[in-house]
Amino acid sequence: MTGLGEQSDKRPDVVRAPAGVGTALAVVVGLILAGGLYLIAVRGDALFVDLAALSGLLFCF
Fold first, then answer.
1. Cβ–Cβ < 8 Å for 39, 47
2. 57 close to 50: Cβ distance less than 8 angstroms
3. 3-class DSSP state for residue 39?
4. pTM for the structure as a whole
């Protein structure tokens, strides 16, 4: 019988990711966001025209 402050052996161990996984994930997400902002800044209205043309081809009903 364990007290309130003692750990029980029945509780599973916590599994954690390696140290660099969080940093790598943040870098990848940051690069994707930066690429999206770059495309919006450089291509601007052409992106919306391309998306409108593509949606017209895909949803032609």
1. yes
2. no
3. helix
4. 0.55
Q: What angle do CA 23, 11, 8 make, to 5 degrees?
A: 125
Q: Are the beta carbons of 40 and 47 closer than 8 angstroms? A: yes
Exposure on the CB side of residue 22, measured as CA atoms within 13 A: 4
Q: Which residues contact 8 (CB under 8 A, 6 or more apart)?
A: 2
Cβ–Cβ contacts within 10 Å for residue 47, how many?
13
Look up residue 16 and give its amino acid: R
Written as tens digits, the pLDDT of the chain (61 aa) is 555 555 566 767 888 888 899 999 999 999 999 999 998 888 888 877 887 787 877 776 5
